[in-house]
Amino acid sequence: MTEGDVGLSAEMHRAADLIEAQSCEILARYETELRAAHHVIASDPVALSQALVHAGQIIADVLTSLRAGQVQVDRSHGTLARTIGASRAASGVHPHESIMAASFFYGAVLSTVSRLLAVFADPLGLFARIAMTLEQSISMRVREAMGSYTVFLLERMQDAQLDERRRIARDLHDRIGHGISVAYRNLELFELYRDSDPEKSIARAATAEKAIRETMQNLRAVTSDLHSKETLKNLEKALLHYLETADCDGVDVRLQSNGDERWARPEVLDEAFLMIREASHNSLRHAGASVLLINVTITPHELRASVEDDGCGFDPRQPPESGGVGLSSMRERSGLLKGLMLVNSRIGLGTQVEFLIPLETGAPA
Ligand SMILES: Nc1ncnc2c1ncn2[C@@H]1O[C@H](COP(=O)(O)OP(=O)(O)O)[C@@H](O)[C@H]1O
Ligand SMILES: [Mg+2]
Q1: What pLDDT is recorded for position 312?
Q2: Ligand 1 mutation target, pool 285, 306, 322, most atoms within 8 A of CB
Q3: pLDDT tens digits, one per residue of 7-38
């Protein structure tokens, strides 16, 4: 090692010591700049403390590099950069805000450093080393943060796609599949009564035709997501209409409705209808029940519905052998309404499905 090298190394150590002593001032200046610009990071205490820890790590890289005599960036700090990238994506902070914050930090470091280096024999050499370290340390963090920012957004997109696929599956099952099965069952009954009871038979054919027409309309609405705009007017009437078209032969069906439907928004009534109809449909189709009780009670703060049968019961913990999505669809709809669905069923002892849906509206208008 030459005398010159020893001198340069000593200068770099001295510069590192001076910068270290000023690191709090650099961070304070950085924070002041962010606040003065009303930067979005400054208005969020968690984001601000993350940014300051991050800035402290970059200063640490500068000190290590000066003391080691070569640029050294601590790659383990990438973890914090990735956390920051994901949390900024989650809170909707655009990357250009991060770049603006980085340039405030550059400014804070360089203005302090240029003042400190004035007393050194080779300020330019030191400045170059510091600038190179800053560049490498910051770009490593930008790369890491951008990576996790993008991954976060992609995951969000995938989640949104998955939610949309689930919505389509629910709607196909509850709005389309249901209509087709009503039409099919009524055509079977049309055949069955054709010779013995022509009047009943014609009525069943008319019901089948109506169900097909409604299903075609529903199909258009589901594919264009219009059904949310064409919401249900009256839950009790819709349920009565469903029971008229369903095959309830041999089952004592009772529908009881209490309270004022105006306490619930039409979209909530629409969803409640689909859930109650599916639970009733399951009782009629799977339970072999002799009694089906449907009870709907609406209070200003809650819609409570119960569908109860005295049929064969089933084990709700087992995934359905039929591969059906009726139960999961009811559960998802309750969840989307921030409500609860409770299934109480025991083999041989019947089934009770209950929905508890909170309502936000006040008294009826
Ligand atoms: N009330 C009920 N009584 C007896 N079994 C039921 C009842 N409700 C649901 N099940 C059982 O749960 C299964 C899953 O129901 P569901 O998810 O609605 O699908 P699917 O009706 O298309 O079969 C049914 O196939 C049936 O075995
Ligand atoms: Mg079902």
Answers
A1: 97
A2: 322
A3: 678 889 999 999 999 999 999 999 999 999 99
Domain architecture of the chain: domains with CATH: 3-160 (1.10.490), 233-365 (3.30.565.10)
Residue 111 CA to residue 26 CA, distance in Å, equals: 9
**Integer Cα distance of 71 and 126 in angstroms:** 12
Please tell me the residue having the least CA distance from ligand 1 atom 24. 320
Please report which ligand is nearest the Cα atom of 286: 1
Work out the pLDDT band at 324, boundaries 50, 70, 90.
confident
Q: Would you state the pLDDT for residue 183?
A: 94
Q: What is the DSSP string of 49-102?
A: HHHHHHHHHHHHHHHHHHHHTS----GGGHHHHHHHHHHHHHTT--HHHHHHHH
Q: From the CA of 341, how far away is ligand 2's center (Å)?
A: 15
Q: What is the pLDDT of residues 177-213, one digit of tens each?
A: 999 999 999 999 999 999 999 999 999 999 999 999 9
Q: Is the dihedral of CA 143, 148, 152, 155 positive or negative?
A: positive
Residue 3's pLDDT band (cuts 50, 70, 90): low
CA of 259 to the centre of ligand 1 (A): 29
Ligand 1 atom at minimum distance from 353 CA:
1
Taking the CA atoms of the chain, what radius of gyration do you get in angstroms? 34
Mutate which of 283, 286, 290 for ligand 1 pocket (most atoms within 8 A of beta carbon): 286
**Cβ-based neighbour number of residue 229 at 10 Å:** 10
Output the pTM of the full model: 0.69
Which of 294, 314, 349 has most ligand 1 atoms within 8 Å of its beta carbon, as the pocket-test mutant?
314
Ligand 1: lining residues by beta carbon, under 6 Å: 282-283, 286-287, 309, 311-314, 320, 322, 324-327, 351
Q: Which strand (E) or helix (H) includes residue 257?
A: strand 252-259
User: Would you give the distance in Å from CA 145 to the centre of its chain?
Assistant: 22
